[in-house]
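Weekly sync notes, structure subgroup
Attendees: PM, AL, DS (notes)

Item 1: joint prediction request from the bench team. They want all two components modeled as one assembly rather than separately. Inputs as received:
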Amino acid sequence: MIRKGALVALFVLAGVTLEVCLFARIPLPGATPDLVAVIVVSLALAFGSRTGALAGFFGGLAIDIAPPADSPIGVSALVLCVAGLLVGLASDPGGRSALASIGLAAGACAATLLVSAIVLGLVGSPRVEWANMGVLLVTTAAYGAILAAFVIPLTLRVSRIGQPPVRI
Amino acid sequence: MKGFRRLRVIIAVLVLTCVTLIVLTVREDSGGPLRGVGNAIFGPLERGASAIFTPIGGFFSDLGTWRDSVDRVKALEAENEKLKALVETSAEDRARVAELDALLKLSAAGQYRMVPAQVIAIGPTQDFAWTVTIDAGSRDGLGVDMTVVNGSGLVGRVVSVGEGTATVALMIDATTSLGGRIAQSQEIGIVSGTGAQYELQMQILDPLAPVDVGTAVVTFGSEGGRPYVPGVPIGVVTEVKGAPGQLARIAILRPYVDMSTLDLVGVITEPPRVDPRDSVLPGAAPVPSPSPS
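Output from the run, pasted for the record:
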């Protein structure tokens, strides 16, 4: 329990810092690679829906309060919490293929972007720009898939540290 | 089924917390105590991370070949690589010096007092907000609603301050709206960000005023110099929409500052005592310093 909490905290802190200090500075077309969303998906795949939802909540809250965020606090937390829950429920802990996991991460990146934009629009943010939403959705899904290919195996490996080996 | 009930309770609590937070912070301008917590946790992390990630590049010198003393070519290649890396880093240093120089000139021309700072983090595009983190904060004398500039002109304003970091909303952010004055003709208008990187909108207040493409726009200045000090170059008029006499005349401006290559910025901690008018614009004659009488 404590181990899981520490792991989630470590991943969230590293993810948010890397996203705003490294990925946002790389001049990539379209969206910024959404490392935090991919991390939430990978934690939901590794530990299930409850940890997924909690990781999504805290990861989103971190994105909302870490400088230079300036949006209403709670939007990312809400969206990523639901994303973590759904990914955890959708994945079958026994048999998941690598390709399905990567697809899930890409879909989650696109879905969180779209739902965040809708929520921001609903609470009256003047910033949401629908004109290039298509480009943003496609690029965030693509970057999410690439990140997932590295992050998901890492998370699964780290999540097994200190646990008895699984007998088949 | 007990697990599902617990899950339902957890989800209900989390979702309610999120909705409460959104409702509490949606009308807030400078962030509440939670932003302070975020600054305290992520400010030092971002400062550290940017120290690691900023000097990336020009670092892949060949380490494996210099041991081979027989192969002179390889040794020379290694030396060459090192020299190249040296040249690259000194080019970066020169660029920084040039930026600082431009900042100094701007501050001398406008008689602003400013604190230099470096951009250390950028908000993700998904957020739709054009905000960056800089590595100066309350301990450097920064406060909310201070003007941020660089050597080319206006960058934005400080929206929240932590101990060692501050968040700057760039002027291209869609929430930005400030008073602008067209150089020479003195016409005033409201400049607002569009969320697009190379475009600002300026609503001209006088429907009959002549506005020419290519004229410069500077800040009109807010009361007490906050959030915008007067006389900072904003951008150049590239297009005028609407004929003279029409009520809503919009001029499209191109900002002087390229937001995609922001690095070194200055935060104006003390506004000038007199409005520098157009003297800060690029190519303007330097103001004669007031001689003691």
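Discussion: The domain at 171-259 of chain B is CATH 2.40.10.350 (Thrombin, subunit H).
Action: AL to compare against the crosslinking data before next sync.
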